Amino acid sequence: MKVQIEADGGSRGNPGPAGYGAVVRDAVTGKVLAERSAGLGTATNNVAEYSGLIAGLQAAIELGATAVEARLDSKLVVEQMSGRWRIKHPQLQPLAREAAALARRLGAVRYEWIPRARNAHADRLANEAMDTQAGRPTRRVAVPATWSGATGHPTRLLLLRHGQTELSAQRRYSGRGDPELTAVGERQASAAAARLSAMGDVRAVVCSPLRRARRTAEVVAGALGTELTVHDGLIEADFGAWEGLTFAQARERDPDLHARWLADTAVAPPGGESMDVVHHRVRRVRDELLAASGGATLVLVSHVTPIKSLLRMALDVGPSLLHRLHLDVASLSIAEFYPDGPASVRLVNDTSYLASAEGDLRLSNEKAP
Fold first, then answer.
1. Distance, first Cα to last Cα, the chain
2. What CA–CA distance (Å, rounded) separates 311 from 283?
3. Rounded to two decimals, what is the model's pTM?
4. 151/1 Cα distance (integer angstroms)
5. Would you say domain 155-364 falls under CATH 3.40.366.10?
6. Which residue in the list 162, 258, 279, 303 is annotated as catalytic?
7. Domains of the chain: which residue ranges?
8. Which of 6, 49, 236, 273 is catalytic?
9. Sheet containing 228-230: which strands, arranged edge to edge?
């Protein structure tokens, strides 16, 4: 059995209160097979990083693995375990020998450096171990009742549609066009940011490259104090020749094609992109995010079609959902995906936090000369 180990460790002080985390995944499916974490008392970052690797190797042995890819964001550990750098520090030498002995039992271990953003699951486990050691409660999402069958800790996706634009206000097809937020949209982005700030630990904000989504995401990331990543896979569907048209105008322009598009998600608008193509694209994004940030909470700022596609995946339902589910601008939906396959939709199209922001804007407009 071939597995991947993601391991990390940290120290708050270097040396200071330290902990490690490790996660073992099936190398083919990405499914989480084991998690390990613990506090180390007072130690350095490098000691904690080696401890995470050792815990991951031990878990791989327990699982019966015969080939391992060890992925760490510690350049030092990767280079030393690969034999390219000498191990000079006396505290690290016995840890490296222990790791090497475990690696020999596994037969084949390859070491790879990865950026910290791709090691989020192990990083979270290490930080939780340090929090527990310090007597602080962790912010893990509760595992659902045992009757659901889900195990492990889900990746929680907070799905935020961008704020209002002129096209959305006029209810026109808005795909690859790139309108900016209106004044209302800016207020909506701020209100959404305040709502998300009250929802606990968010690992990162990921958004579509289009300006309306990116601007909304910038406001959210600023309020959360977290990194912002742009992902092209979260872009809206390409509506081709229907871009900027109303529903009635598109139907009048291409009556037969429009009817077939509504009935069959494999049909694309003229010069555009079918809903099936969008669904497969967004599925790849979801799988990538789950593999890179398993167990974390992420804010995804996107558009109607990608968000509906993610909710469809979580609900495990057919494409009819795309035409039956309404999503307002700046609305929030929540889907959780568990490492063993199940998913849960926790919230759909929440806009309760927008009322005061839009009311304030109307009041300011009424007072303007």
1. 72
2. 11
3. 0.61
4. 21
5. no
6. 162
7. 2-133, 155-364
8. 236
9. 228-230, 204-207, 297-302, 155-161, 332-337, 343-350
Sign of CA dihedral 239, 331, 337, 264: negative
Query: Thinking of the domain 2-133, which architecture would CATH place it in?
Result: 2-Layer Sandwich (3.30)
Amino acid at 94: P
Q: What is the CA radius of gyration of the chain?
A: 24
Contacts of 212 (CB under 8 A, 6+ apart): 162, 163, 165, 178, 179, 180, 181, 185
Known catalytic membership, residue 236: yes
Sign of CA dihedral 301, 305, 310, 311: positive
Give yes or no: 162 in active site.
Answer: yes
Q: Are 233 and 282 in contact (CB under 8 A)?
A: yes
Give the pLDDT of the chain (369 residues) as one tens digit per residue: 899 999 999 999 888 899 999 999 988 888 889 999 999 999 999 999 999 999 999 999 989 898 999 999 999 999 999 999 999 998 899 999 999 999 999 988 999 999 988 899 999 999 999 988 887 655 444 444 344 555 567 899 999 999 999 999 999 999 999 999 999 999 999 999 999 988 778 889 999 999 999 999 999 999 999 989 999 999 999 999 999 999 999 999 999 999 999 999 999 999 999 999 999 999 999 988 988 887 889 999 999 999 999 999 999 888 999 999 999 999 999 999 988 778 999 999 999 889 755 554 443 333 332
Instruction: Kindly report the number of other CB atoms within 10 A of residue 131's CB atom.
Output: 17
